[in-house]
Every structure is written in C-alpha cells, then in structure tokens.
Amino acid sequence: MTDEVRAFLCPECGEPSKSAVHGIAIQNDPEIFPPAEFSLLLCSNNECQEPIVQVREDWGDGFEDDKPVIYLPSKRQLNAAIPAALCDEFEEAQKCFEAKAYRATLVMVRRTLEGTCADQGATKRILAENLRELQAQGKIDGLLAQWADLLRVVGNKGAHFTGEKVSAQDAQDALDFAEALLDHLYVLRARFDAFKARQTKQASP
Ligand SMILES: [Zn+2]
Questions:
Q1: Angle between helices 127-136 and 142-159 (to 10 degrees)
Q2: H-type alpha helices, the chain
Q3: Cβ neighbours of residue 49 under 8 Å, at least 6 residues apart?
Q4: Ligand 1 centroid distance, CA of 124 (Å)
C-alpha cells in the first residue's frame, strides 16, 4: 500500500468516496503509447466497499500530471448487434442516470422503446398500440411484452408532470429492463434462431 489517498465518485454506489492506493501496476510496453498506471482502490462507504481500478497515462510529464479516471468497473457496453440509433438513445438514458436525472432517465428509456418499435416495423402512432401490434405479430411476447408495457407506463411518469418523484431504484430498473429487452430482441433471438437451426440440421442429416 502507498501513502497516497484519492477522492473520487464511486461508480458503484454513486457516493463521494476516498481510498488509499492499495497497489499499482504499470503497463510499459514499448508498442503501446502512452504508458499507463493502474491503481487499486476500495470504496470507503461501508455498505459498498466496491474494488475500483483507476488509470493514469503518461503523455510525457509523468503519471502525476494526469487526472485519474475509472477503469473498472467498466461502463456496460451494448452489444454491437443492437442498431446504432437505439444504442444512442439508450446511452443518453445512462448519462441521465449518472447525472441523477431520474425523470429524464425514464423519458430516454421511453424514447428507446419508441425507437425499438419503429425499428421492429410497428406502424401505429401511439406507443401502447405499437407494442400491441408487435405482440400480435409475435415479435415480442410473454414476459418481454410485460416488460415493454411497464417501461411504457413508467416512461409516462417521466414525460408528464404528476408532481411525483422518480426514485433512483425505479430509474435503475427501467434502464436494466430496457437493456434486457434490447438484448433479447437483437442478440439472444438471433442466437437462438441459429442454435435452433443447428439442432434441426443435426436431427435430420
Ligand atoms: Zn461505493
């Protein structure tokens, strides 16, 4: 452990935190520029205690000259199979959440859902009708349809003035379910279809 103590905003619990630097690893590969220094920290909030890795780069004036940024836990990246326009909407929802703008998070989640309906070929003007249309076509069904409909309902809470507060937990859940919905529609469904095709082929040589 070094004597250095760093203050940071914990990416896990979202609270201001500070930690001693518990260890340092330096990446000094001549093929990789700039050299990078990775430091191990631990969130000081008792209920959290998330291990965190920060990175600083040496652009010529030493690591001390660089402002440390969080390296781990890394921000979740959406799968490359999800259309770029939808990733863009969803990432704005994530940014709203990070800024603790929970109502705006729900609005962006709702926009992501609207974009998903359009991308899936829904033709109606009202989100609820679009979801019913996709359900009738079998594009979303069962649990997915329930998730989508609940996201629509909480999205309304963000979009229209009700005087009600939106909790961090509700905003986090909306984000997680929106991400799961995108994963199911664009990633898992394609994988499942390919998997099923392989099994059918094996069954009838
Ligand atoms: Zn924390």
A1: 170
A2: 84-98, 102-119, 127-136, 142-159, 168-183, 189-203
A3: 42, 43
A4: 44
For ligand 1, the distance from its centroid to the CA atom of residue 16, given in whole angstroms, is: 8
How far apart CA 131 and CA 148 sit, in angstroms, is: 8
For residue range 42-71, list pLDDT tens digits in order.
999 999 999 999 999 999 999 999 999 888
CA of 52 to the centre of ligand 1 (A): 9
pLDDT, tens digit, 9 for 90 and up, residues 81-126: 899 999 999 999 999 998 889 999 999 999 999 999 999 999 998 9
| Distance in Å, CA 9 to ligand 1 centroid | 8
Ligand 1 centroid to Cα of residue 192, in Å, is: 37
Instruction: Tell me the CA–centroid distance for residue 68 and ligand 1, in Å.
Output: 17
Please give the Cα distance from 198 to 144 (Å, whole number): 25
Note the pTM of the prediction, 2 decimals.
Answer: 0.68
CA-based nearest residue to 94, from 80, 81, 82, 76:
76
Measure 46 CA to ligand 1 centroid, in angstroms: 8
Distance from Cα 147 to the centre of ligand 1, integer Å:
29
